[in-house]
Amino acid sequence: MVTYLDKILYASENGVYNYNKQLGVFQKDSLLSRIFPSGEYTSGKLIADAQHDKLWGFSKKNISYVSPGKFSDKSVITKIPIPQALRKEMVGYETISFLMDDTYLFGTSSGYIIIDLSKIDLKSYDIAINSITNYAIDGEVFSVNITNASNFSDKENNIQFNYSVAEYNKYLAAEYQYKLIGYYDVWSPWSSQPFVLFKNLPHGEYTFKVRSKVGNNLSNNEALYEFYIAKPWHLSNLMWAIYIITLIVLGVMVHHLYKRYYRKQKEKLMLKNKRDLELKELESEQQLMQLKNETLQQDIENKNRELAISTMSLIKKNEFLNQIKEELKNTDDQKHVKPVIKIIDKNINTTDDWKFFQEAFNNADKDFLKKIKAKHPKLTPNDLKLCAYLRLNLSSKEIAPLLNISHRSVEVKRYRLRKKMHLAHESSLTNYILEL
């Protein structure tokens, strides 16, 4: 805690505080707090020189003093760039004493430093790039002409820059800050190292910039150097052209391949659709054919029923006429009966019934009589009648009244018909006729 210009002050890491007598509290003084910038606080030691109205403070990079302004009541802070590393004082025990005029004596752990405020000259400095060294990938090391911009191959992408300021100060060391536009576009932290090495830089255009400061004074200039690192051969314009042409050719090939593939797929799909359509048409035709066959079968069945009805009618009629005939033969009045018997025989033997039957039979079993006649040309009309009745699967007993003969006579006719057809003894005549 110290008194300066009737102010009670104390310092901490958070700044310098002034005691407010009216409120009875310490309040932060924003102006005096600049003695200790952020990150530069050491002990917070303040030394007041009441005789010369100066307030001294010590930070990591500077010795600062506060004095009244010449043209206003506002205090002025002056910083002397002597860093703690050079002062080597004992932290918390810093001392400074007035000697004469503007000369002060500053104590360190190894002696004293005399500071003449009148001779503190805030000089300006220039920075220059001294040399550039290129370390190629193949191991070659060579110096670069710093007066002209350079073009490096893609294998010459390890570059070191050496720089300095042309000024020596035994208390102050120069610090440097750089950036490489195109790769590292922000200023680097301050460093006392007078060189920087960039490794494995990618291809492109670059501008290297460097500046310096001695104490709190920045250099007047920024030294810069422009250079270019060429693309590797596989990224050259020629190779890009080849890549683009290759991609175009591949694209065209792929397009044609896909086009051909999709054309084949389309053809397969069309063929499949065609086959499906043909199959559906075939199914439709089969269904139609089945429907026609069913209709035809129905017609055949209907005609067979008609044929069966007509045949049974003939059988019934002939049986009835035969019964009447037999009854008439047993009467005594043969003179009047004989004309009636002749009429009955005429109805039994008439060919009209056979023609009606033949027409109905041909409608039901088309061309059967023609086929059997062609196969067995020696068959007589009576044989064909018997074949037709057998085709209807009628028994000999049912056939007898149709032919107006006895059952025994039908059997004889069947035997003769077998001989004409040359059928084996074990073969069935009815089955043979049904299978034709």
From TrEMBL:
InterPro entries (alphabetical): Ig-like_fold, Sig_transdc_resp-reg_C-effctor, Tscrpt_reg_LuxR_C, WH-like_DNA-bd_sf, Y_Y_Y
Coiled-coil ranges per UniProt: 274-306
SUPFAM superfamilies assigned: C-terminal effector domain of the bipartite response regulators
Keywords, sorted A to Z: Coiled coil, Membrane, Transmembrane, Transmembrane helix
Organism: Gelidibacter algens
Protein's recorded name: Regulatory LuxR family protein
Single GO molecular function: DNA binding
Record domain HTH luxR-type: where: 376-433
Family annotation (Gene3D superfamilies): Immunoglobulins (2.60.40.10), Winged helix-like DNA-binding domain superfamily/Winged helix DNA-binding domain (1.10.10.10)
Parts of the chain that traverse the membrane: 238-258
GO biological process: regulation of DNA-templated transcription
Pfam families assigned to the protein according to its UniProt record, in alphabetical order: Y_Y_Y
